[in-house]
Design brief:
By secondary structure, the protein is of the alpha/beta class. The protein folds into three domains: 62 residues; 179 residues, Rossmann fold (3-Layer(aba) Sandwich), CATH 3.40.50.450; 58 residues, Winged helix-like DNA-binding domain superfamily/Winged helix DNA-binding domain (Arc Repressor Mutant, subunit A, Orthogonal Bundle). It has 16 helices and 13 strands. Helix 14 crosses helix 16.
């Protein structure tokens, strides 16, 4: 942290992430480089004279005490590309940031992103409340902390007593939107993290958010797009996901509504897997489920068992309903239900209907 804070000082002098990367491929000590910053020391890394002049002007007026105060007040940890704590997944994106500002610590658990259009519909809210809690049992849920959409993902995860990560499009000391300051504190207090790649004091602007989206994708094994309009920011995230070879999932929606236009399109073009239940996401991975604070591995299921499990995961069902929905003879269905009960995946409730264990 002592050396890394000098990287933060340099970042606040208007040096970009790429310029910091170039400098510290060759320079060993951020402290020495900062304390001896000059036109000549910058020349090898910043060819443009006007840029060097801009950086040196910032350097002369830099308020180090104010930066230190922000880092201390918000308990910000600074991690650079040189550090062992730096996430390996971010080393594989197109624009790898050299410096990360982190409130608390990045969870070591695998991460999964949840994104959608800026304004959430009632349908989108219900989808999040239904699907995210199960995903959060396996993955740390990542989103962008924005109003409406991202906020719902973070709040739903916290309500399930699980960890979530906020990747902000501002400096780590800024709260955008302003009303989410309490939410961000709750995220940190619950063992999650707030992450920024932007310099201290930087406000939100339209150019920051596509960059922020790349960090979300880079951190995650997969991304779930809940709703997406034409030209939606979540489509940028979806394309980044495909470019990086990450798993892309989408929620189908009403074909008459603009918020479902591009999620339906992603599914139609086979670019995203259609998600109706959380099981559609979990089955793509190692099928770990956590219940009652214990982890166990979900046994591999055959096609028919998977279909039965999916139906029951959506709604408790009796045997006649299952036979009708799945077009399965009762004799065969009874065998499969018994197998699922033996695997401790389903059980009968007092009304005689099958539910998940």
């Amino acid at each position: 942290m002592d050396e890394n804070k000098y990287v933060a000082y340099l970042h606040s002098c208007s040096l970009s992430q790429n310029e910091l990367y170039s400098i510290f491929k060759k320079e060993d000590s951020p402290k020495i480089f900062f304390e001896n910053l000059s036109n000549s020391s910058l020349e090898a890394f910043v060819p443009n004279f006007e840029r060097r002049t801009q950086i040196l002007e910032k350097y002369k007026t830099l308020n180090i005490k104010q930066i230190d105060s922000v880092l201390k007040k918000s308990s910000v940890d600074i991690v650079t590309l040189r550090d062992s704590e730096y996430p390996e997944s971010l080393k594989n994106i197109s624009h790898t940031p050299y410096i990360l500002y982190i409130r608390w610590k990045i969870p070591t658990q695998d991460m999964f992103g949840v994104v959608w259009s800026r304004k959430i519909t009632g349908y989108g809210k219900k989808v999040i409340e239904k699907i995210v809690p199960d995903i959060a049992k396996i993955f740390t849920v990542v989103s962008g902390g924005a109003a409406w959409c991202d906020t719902q993902a973070h709040k739903t995860t916290l309500k399930a007593w699980e960890k979530t990560v906020v990747v902000v499009g501002t400096g780590i000391d800024q709260t955008y939107p302003v009303g989410n300051e309490k939410l961000f504190d709750e995220v940190v207090d619950s063992g999650g993290a707030v992450i920024s790649i932007f310099r201290i004091g930087e406000p939100g602007n339209p150019y920051n958010f596509p960059v922020r989206n790349e960090i979300v994708v880079g951190l995650c094994r997969g991304i779930l797009v809940v709703e997406a309009k034409e030209k939606s920011g979540s489509l940028i995230t979806a394309n980044l996901c495909l470019d990086l070879g990450k798993d892309l999932f989408a929620i189908p929606g009403d074909i008459t509504l603009s918020n479902s236009l591009w999620t339906n399109s992603l599914i139609q073009k086979w670019e995203a897997k259609c998600v109706i239940t959380s099981f559609d996401v979990l089955e793509e991975y190692d099928l770990l489920i956590k219940q009652n604070s214990h982890r166990y591995q979900l046994p591999l299921l055959g096609d028919l068992e998977s279909q039965i499990y999916k139906v029951i995961s959506q709604e408790e069902s009796d045997i006649d309903t299952l036979a009708e929905v799945l077009w399965i003879p009762l004799s065969e269905l009874m065998i499969k239900l018994s197998m699922l009960e033996l695997k401790k995946l389903i059980k009968k409730n007092l009304s005689g209907k099958y539910i998940l264990v």
